[in-house]
Design a protein that fits this description.
Arf-GAP_dual-PH_domain; 7-stranded antiparallel β-sheet; 2 domains
Length: 303
Protein backbone atom coordinates (compact mmCIF):
# COMPACT_ATOMS: atom_id res chain seq x y z
CA UNK A 1 0.00 0.00 0.00
CA UNK A 2 1.36 3.41 -0.97
CA UNK A 3 1.24 6.16 1.62
CA UNK A 4 1.31 9.77 0.45
CA UNK A 5 4.04 11.90 2.03
CA UNK A 6 2.64 15.02 3.65
CA UNK A 7 3.86 18.35 2.38
CA UNK A 8 5.90 20.21 4.95
CA UNK A 9 7.70 23.56 5.03
CA UNK A 10 10.81 21.96 3.47
CA UNK A 11 8.96 20.33 0.55
CA UNK A 12 10.18 23.04 -1.84
CA UNK A 13 13.72 21.70 -1.64
CA UNK A 14 12.51 18.50 -3.29
CA UNK A 15 11.23 20.49 -6.29
CA UNK A 16 14.22 22.71 -6.94
CA UNK A 17 14.89 21.41 -10.44
CA UNK A 18 11.64 20.06 -11.87
CA UNK A 19 11.96 20.16 -15.67
CA UNK A 20 9.43 22.48 -17.25
CA UNK A 21 8.08 19.61 -19.38
CA UNK A 22 7.60 17.20 -16.45
CA UNK A 23 3.93 16.47 -15.84
CA UNK A 24 2.68 17.63 -12.44
CA UNK A 25 -0.46 15.59 -11.74
CA UNK A 26 -3.61 16.90 -10.10
CA UNK A 27 -6.16 15.09 -7.97
CA UNK A 28 -8.10 14.16 -11.12
CA UNK A 29 -5.21 12.21 -12.66
CA UNK A 30 -4.78 8.45 -12.36
CA UNK A 31 -3.18 6.91 -9.30
CA UNK A 32 -0.02 5.95 -11.19
CA UNK A 33 0.83 9.56 -12.09
CA UNK A 34 0.13 10.82 -8.57
CA UNK A 35 2.11 8.05 -6.91
CA UNK A 36 5.16 8.34 -9.18
CA UNK A 37 5.19 12.14 -8.79
CA UNK A 38 5.54 11.71 -5.02
CA UNK A 39 8.12 8.93 -5.33
CA UNK A 40 10.14 11.01 -7.80
CA UNK A 41 10.31 13.85 -5.29
CA UNK A 42 10.85 12.13 -1.96
CA UNK A 43 12.21 8.64 -2.65
CA UNK A 44 14.31 9.12 -5.77
CA UNK A 45 14.99 12.86 -5.27
CA UNK A 46 14.93 13.34 -9.03
CA UNK A 47 14.43 17.09 -8.77
CA UNK A 48 17.42 17.60 -6.50
CA UNK A 49 19.91 15.59 -8.57
CA UNK A 50 19.39 16.29 -12.28
CA UNK A 51 21.45 13.21 -13.18
CA UNK A 52 18.48 11.13 -12.04
CA UNK A 53 16.34 12.72 -14.76
CA UNK A 54 18.32 11.00 -17.50
CA UNK A 55 15.57 8.43 -18.35
CA UNK A 56 13.27 11.15 -19.68
CA UNK A 57 15.48 14.16 -20.40
CA UNK A 58 18.22 12.69 -22.60
CA UNK A 59 16.37 13.09 -25.92
CA UNK A 60 16.64 9.35 -26.62
CA UNK A 61 14.90 6.41 -25.01
CA UNK A 62 14.89 2.75 -25.94
CA UNK A 63 13.13 -0.17 -24.30
CA UNK A 64 10.37 -2.74 -24.48
CA UNK A 65 6.69 -2.08 -23.90
CA UNK A 66 3.69 -4.40 -24.02
CA UNK A 67 1.61 -3.32 -27.01
CA UNK A 68 -1.95 -4.37 -27.77
CA UNK A 69 -2.32 -6.16 -31.09
CA UNK A 70 -4.65 -4.49 -33.57
CA UNK A 71 -6.41 -7.69 -34.63
CA UNK A 72 -6.34 -10.17 -31.74
CA UNK A 73 -6.20 -7.77 -28.80
CA UNK A 74 -3.27 -9.59 -27.18
CA UNK A 75 -0.45 -7.62 -25.60
CA UNK A 76 2.97 -8.49 -26.99
CA UNK A 77 6.43 -7.17 -26.12
CA UNK A 78 7.60 -4.62 -28.66
CA UNK A 79 10.86 -2.72 -28.94
CA UNK A 80 10.27 1.05 -28.84
CA UNK A 81 12.65 3.90 -29.61
CA UNK A 82 12.00 7.59 -29.01
CA UNK A 83 14.53 9.85 -30.72
CA UNK A 84 14.45 13.63 -30.77
CA UNK A 85 17.12 13.59 -33.48
CA UNK A 86 14.89 11.47 -35.72
CA UNK A 87 11.81 13.42 -34.62
CA UNK A 88 9.86 10.23 -34.04
CA UNK A 89 8.71 7.42 -31.79
CA UNK A 90 9.09 4.02 -33.42
CA UNK A 91 8.14 0.49 -32.52
CA UNK A 92 9.31 -2.78 -34.04
CA UNK A 93 7.35 -6.03 -34.43
CA UNK A 94 10.50 -8.11 -34.00
CA UNK A 95 13.30 -7.42 -31.56
CA UNK A 96 15.94 -7.72 -34.29
CA UNK A 97 13.98 -5.89 -37.01
CA UNK A 98 15.78 -3.10 -38.82
CA UNK A 99 12.70 -1.28 -40.06
CA UNK A 100 10.00 -0.08 -37.65
CA UNK A 101 6.43 -1.26 -37.92
CA UNK A 102 5.27 2.29 -37.26
CA UNK A 103 6.96 5.68 -37.23
CA UNK A 104 5.12 8.31 -35.20
CA UNK A 105 6.26 11.87 -35.84
CA UNK A 106 6.80 13.85 -32.66
CA UNK A 107 4.91 16.89 -33.99
CA UNK A 108 1.62 14.92 -34.15
CA UNK A 109 2.23 12.74 -31.09
CA UNK A 110 0.01 12.66 -28.00
CA UNK A 111 -0.06 10.39 -24.96
CA UNK A 112 -2.61 9.98 -22.19
CA UNK A 113 -2.99 7.46 -19.40
CA UNK A 114 -6.12 5.33 -19.85
CA UNK A 115 -5.91 2.54 -17.23
CA UNK A 116 -9.65 1.85 -17.11
CA UNK A 117 -10.09 1.86 -20.87
CA UNK A 118 -7.04 -0.32 -21.56
CA UNK A 119 -7.59 -2.61 -18.57
CA UNK A 120 -4.05 -2.15 -17.25
CA UNK A 121 -3.15 0.07 -14.26
CA UNK A 122 -0.20 1.48 -16.24
CA UNK A 123 -2.01 1.65 -19.59
CA UNK A 124 -0.98 4.49 -21.92
CA UNK A 125 -2.78 5.47 -25.13
CA UNK A 126 -0.47 6.96 -27.76
CA UNK A 127 -1.97 8.71 -30.78
CA UNK A 128 -0.48 10.22 -33.90
CA UNK A 129 -1.63 11.36 -37.31
CA UNK A 130 -1.04 9.34 -40.45
CA UNK A 131 -2.32 10.88 -43.67
CA UNK A 132 -4.40 13.25 -41.52
CA UNK A 133 -6.16 10.31 -39.85
CA UNK A 134 -5.74 9.37 -36.21
CA UNK A 135 -3.92 6.16 -35.32
CA UNK A 136 -4.02 4.71 -31.78
CA UNK A 137 -1.66 2.32 -30.07
CA UNK A 138 -2.14 1.03 -26.53
CA UNK A 139 0.87 0.13 -24.40
CA UNK A 140 1.84 -0.58 -20.83
CA UNK A 141 4.79 -1.67 -18.70
CA UNK A 142 4.61 -3.66 -15.48
CA UNK A 143 6.92 -1.14 -13.81
CA UNK A 144 5.03 2.08 -13.07
CA UNK A 145 8.16 4.24 -13.04
CA UNK A 146 9.15 2.91 -16.47
CA UNK A 147 5.77 3.90 -17.92
CA UNK A 148 5.79 7.39 -16.39
CA UNK A 149 9.37 7.87 -17.64
CA UNK A 150 8.18 7.08 -21.19
CA UNK A 151 5.33 9.53 -20.77
CA UNK A 152 7.63 12.35 -19.65
CA UNK A 153 10.18 11.48 -22.33
CA UNK A 154 7.44 12.04 -24.93
CA UNK A 155 6.60 15.36 -23.26
CA UNK A 156 10.29 16.37 -23.30
CA UNK A 157 10.60 15.55 -27.01
CA UNK A 158 7.43 17.51 -27.76
CA UNK A 159 8.70 20.46 -25.70
CA UNK A 160 12.00 20.66 -27.56
CA UNK A 161 10.22 20.34 -30.91
CA UNK A 162 7.85 23.21 -30.03
CA UNK A 163 10.75 25.38 -28.88
CA UNK A 164 12.17 25.12 -32.39
CA UNK A 165 8.81 25.43 -34.12
CA UNK A 166 7.79 28.51 -32.11
CA UNK A 167 10.98 30.43 -31.35
CA UNK A 168 10.48 33.13 -28.76
CA UNK A 169 7.38 31.50 -27.29
CA UNK A 170 7.18 31.42 -23.51
CA UNK A 171 7.46 28.06 -21.77
CA UNK A 172 4.08 28.66 -20.15
CA UNK A 173 2.51 28.79 -23.63
CA UNK A 174 4.21 25.59 -24.79
CA UNK A 175 3.60 23.34 -21.78
CA UNK A 176 -0.20 22.96 -22.37
CA UNK A 177 0.58 21.72 -25.89
CA UNK A 178 2.87 18.86 -24.81
CA UNK A 179 0.19 16.26 -24.10
CA UNK A 180 -3.55 16.52 -23.61
CA UNK A 181 -6.38 14.51 -22.17
CA UNK A 182 -9.52 14.04 -24.21
CA UNK A 183 -12.35 16.48 -23.63
CA UNK A 184 -14.87 13.64 -23.55
CA UNK A 185 -15.30 9.99 -24.50
CA UNK A 186 -18.28 7.64 -24.54
CA UNK A 187 -20.94 5.87 -26.57
CA UNK A 188 -23.47 7.57 -28.83
CA UNK A 189 -25.42 6.46 -31.89
CA UNK A 190 -24.97 8.09 -35.29
CA UNK A 191 -26.37 7.91 -38.80
CA UNK A 192 -24.78 8.55 -42.19
CA UNK A 193 -24.57 11.72 -44.28
CA UNK A 194 -27.90 11.13 -46.06
CA UNK A 195 -29.72 10.51 -42.75
CA UNK A 196 -31.48 7.52 -44.31
CA UNK A 197 -29.20 4.83 -42.87
CA UNK A 198 -29.98 3.24 -39.54
CA UNK A 199 -28.35 4.62 -36.39
CA UNK A 200 -25.37 2.62 -35.16
CA UNK A 201 -23.76 2.55 -31.72
CA UNK A 202 -20.20 3.89 -31.78
CA UNK A 203 -17.50 4.90 -29.31
CA UNK A 204 -16.74 8.62 -29.63
CA UNK A 205 -13.59 10.49 -28.64
CA UNK A 206 -13.47 14.29 -28.60
CA UNK A 207 -9.83 15.31 -28.96
CA UNK A 208 -9.93 19.10 -28.95
CA UNK A 209 -11.72 20.01 -32.23
CA UNK A 210 -11.40 16.51 -33.70
CA UNK A 211 -14.39 14.22 -33.04
CA UNK A 212 -13.61 10.59 -33.87
CA UNK A 213 -15.77 7.52 -33.70
CA UNK A 214 -14.82 3.86 -33.39
CA UNK A 215 -16.60 0.52 -33.41
CA UNK A 216 -14.68 -0.39 -30.24
CA UNK A 217 -12.90 1.88 -27.70
CA UNK A 218 -9.59 0.07 -28.34
CA UNK A 219 -9.66 0.21 -32.14
CA UNK A 220 -6.44 1.31 -33.81
CA UNK A 221 -8.17 3.43 -36.45
CA UNK A 222 -11.25 5.63 -36.33
CA UNK A 223 -14.13 4.73 -38.62
CA UNK A 224 -14.62 8.44 -39.20
CA UNK A 225 -13.65 11.89 -38.00
CA UNK A 226 -15.12 15.36 -38.11
CA UNK A 227 -13.84 18.84 -37.32
CA UNK A 228 -15.80 21.07 -34.95
CA UNK A 229 -15.13 24.73 -35.63
CA UNK A 230 -16.47 27.94 -34.12
CA UNK A 231 -19.81 29.68 -34.50
CA UNK A 232 -18.08 32.40 -36.54
CA UNK A 233 -17.37 29.70 -39.12
CA UNK A 234 -20.97 28.51 -39.20
CA UNK A 235 -20.85 25.64 -36.68
CA UNK A 236 -23.97 25.23 -34.54
CA UNK A 237 -24.93 22.69 -31.86
CA UNK A 238 -28.65 21.97 -31.42
CA UNK A 239 -30.54 19.66 -29.06
CA UNK A 240 -32.74 17.07 -30.71
CA UNK A 241 -32.95 15.77 -34.27
CA UNK A 242 -34.81 16.97 -37.38
CA UNK A 243 -38.51 15.91 -37.24
CA UNK A 244 -38.13 13.65 -40.27
CA UNK A 245 -35.37 11.54 -38.70
CA UNK A 246 -36.21 7.85 -38.29
CA UNK A 247 -34.53 4.66 -37.20
CA UNK A 248 -32.82 5.69 -33.97
CA UNK A 249 -33.10 3.80 -30.70
CA UNK A 250 -31.86 6.39 -28.21
CA UNK A 251 -34.15 9.40 -27.88
CA UNK A 252 -31.82 12.16 -26.66
CA UNK A 253 -30.58 13.67 -29.91
CA UNK A 254 -27.87 16.15 -30.88
CA UNK A 255 -27.51 17.92 -34.21
CA UNK A 256 -24.21 19.54 -35.20
CA UNK A 257 -24.49 21.88 -38.15
CA UNK A 258 -21.27 22.43 -40.13
CA UNK A 259 -20.64 24.37 -43.36
CA UNK A 260 -20.78 21.03 -45.22
CA UNK A 261 -23.62 19.07 -43.64
CA UNK A 262 -25.56 18.16 -40.50
CA UNK A 263 -24.29 15.42 -38.19
CA UNK A 264 -26.90 13.57 -36.15
CA UNK A 265 -26.24 11.76 -32.88
CA UNK A 266 -28.35 10.27 -30.11
CA UNK A 267 -27.48 9.58 -26.47
CA UNK A 268 -28.84 6.94 -24.12
CA UNK A 269 -29.70 9.35 -21.28
CA UNK A 270 -30.53 13.01 -20.90
CA UNK A 271 -27.46 13.47 -18.70
CA UNK A 272 -25.14 12.14 -21.41
CA UNK A 273 -26.86 14.37 -23.96
CA UNK A 274 -26.26 17.43 -21.78
CA UNK A 275 -22.62 16.51 -21.17
CA UNK A 276 -21.91 16.07 -24.88
CA UNK A 277 -23.82 19.25 -25.70
CA UNK A 278 -21.73 21.21 -23.19
CA UNK A 279 -18.49 19.81 -24.65
CA UNK A 280 -19.50 20.64 -28.23
CA UNK A 281 -20.83 24.07 -27.31
CA UNK A 282 -17.60 24.92 -25.53
CA UNK A 283 -15.69 24.35 -28.78
CA UNK A 284 -18.22 26.23 -30.91
CA UNK A 285 -18.07 29.23 -28.55
CA UNK A 286 -14.26 29.29 -28.62
CA UNK A 287 -12.74 31.37 -31.44
CA UNK A 288 -10.51 29.38 -33.75
CA UNK A 289 -6.75 29.88 -33.71
CA UNK A 290 -4.87 30.58 -36.97
CA UNK A 291 -3.42 27.06 -37.04
CA UNK A 292 -6.91 25.60 -36.60
CA UNK A 293 -8.04 27.27 -39.81
CA UNK A 294 -5.31 25.32 -41.60
CA UNK A 295 -6.44 22.07 -39.95
CA UNK A 296 -10.04 22.73 -41.00
CA UNK A 297 -9.00 23.48 -44.58
CA UNK A 298 -7.14 20.17 -44.84
CA UNK A 299 -9.75 18.17 -43.00
CA UNK A 300 -11.91 15.71 -44.87
CA UNK A 301 -15.17 14.87 -43.14
CA UNK A 302 -15.71 11.13 -43.39
CA UNK A 303 -19.16 9.51 -43.41
Amino acid sequence: MFVCCPLGPNSAKYEQKVPVFYYRPTHTDCQLLREQWIRARYERKEFVCVERQEPYSAGYREGFLWKRGRDNGQFLSRKCILSERDGALKYFNKHDAREPKALMKIHTLNASFQPGKIGQPHGLQVTYLKNNSTRNIFVYHKDGKEMVDWFNAIRAARFHYLQVAFPGAHDADLVPKLTRNYIKEGYMEKTGPKHTEGFKKRWFTLDDRRLMYFKDPLDAYALGEMFIGSKEKGYIVLPGLPPSTQGYHWQFGITIVTPDRKFLFTCKTEGEQQDWMAAFQGLVNRPMLPQEYAVEANFKHKP
